[in-house]
Amino acid sequence: MSNTKTVFVDGSTGEGGGQILRTSLALACITGKSLHIENIRAARRNPGLAKQHLSCVQAACQISNGKCRGATQGSRILDFQPSPVQSGDFYFDIGSAGSATLVSQTVLPALFLADKPSTITVTGGTHNPLAPPFDFICETFLPAIATAGFCGNCKRIKHGFFPAGGGKIIFDIQPWQEQSHQTINLCKPSKQFQIHARIYIAKLPPHIAQRQQKLLLQSELDIQNIEHVEVTDSDGPGNCVMIRLCDSVRTTVFTAFGMRGKPSQEVISEAVNLAEDFMASGAAIDRFLADQLLLYMAIAKAGSYTTNELSTHLLTNMEIIKKFLPVTFQVDKAKDAYKVSCCLD
Hints:
- It is a single chain.
- By secondary structure, the chain is an alpha/beta fold.
- The chain has helices at 18-31, 51-64, 100-112, 134-146, 206-218, 264-281, 287-300, 312-324; strands spanning 6-10, 34-38, 67-69, 78-81, 89-93, 118-124, 152-158, 167-173, 185-186, 194-202, 223-231, 238-246, 251-257, 302-307, 327-334, 337-344.
- It has four domains: 1-83, SepF-like protein (Translation Initiation Factor IF3, 2-Layer Sandwich), CATH 3.30.110; 87-182, Alpha-beta prism (UDP-n-acetylglucosamine1-carboxyvinyl-transferase, Chain); 194-278, Dihydrodipicolinate Reductase, domain 2; 282-345, Ribosomal Protein S8, Chain: A, domain 1, CATH 3.30.1370.
- The longest helix has 18 residues, at 264-281.
């Protein structure tokens, strides 16, 4: 492969996980630059490309008719050379319970920049620990990027809980309306939230959801209502609890997952603590969304938001983006929140 305009990325940088690979693949597709990445997922217990990460590579190749070398399970080095991204109707099957939302986030930025609408169908996990669940993508992420003209919608065809997987989601993506001159500007905190909860149970005894509802109502949060979702289409068991902070402008979704050996008290405390920390900070967006908005601000060459935490994911993502695009990020501390801004370098 040619080394012309090749960007070299060290996968052990910062948080040293799969986010570095996904961001690098997305940016290679957007810029047309070749990518050479080493030490892939160096900080993880099983470093190198797992099935889910291979799916990200294959998806990037598919939308850009790209060529790659090193795309095998366990590989720690990858060369990727994209061609111009084409819109289309794409299907990606992870073949495991790997996160369908993370695979979709690898290709969404580039498909927003294509000249015609696209559809992507992804099968795999829809509700995974350590990955954004479908509800977060649908209710928090897509509305946030739509404020800058990145318009898409998604629907869940089938639930897929970790570890069984087998879920299915579909995204419809419209070309980015750059001429609208909108940017992400999410700096003002909500004055007042309506707090809702959602409990998912799949192939598990109903007393688990009943116990979780009781614990939610005992928390300090003023929860307006609790929605029970009894999942009947899942290939395997699953449980997660979501706290949704809603105002007239946006919805922020926090999730905690139940699993074997994890008491319901721990699940509820995890979700409640995330929501309480966020509300106490006076920030406009949570730390999970903060990480994912950076790339869209960089594409628009502008934008700002306030968040309650600077995660290593976020700081690492900034460094990777600056390798590909002529932008810079500024971070300012404001009371219990941080203001993150993007502008041309």
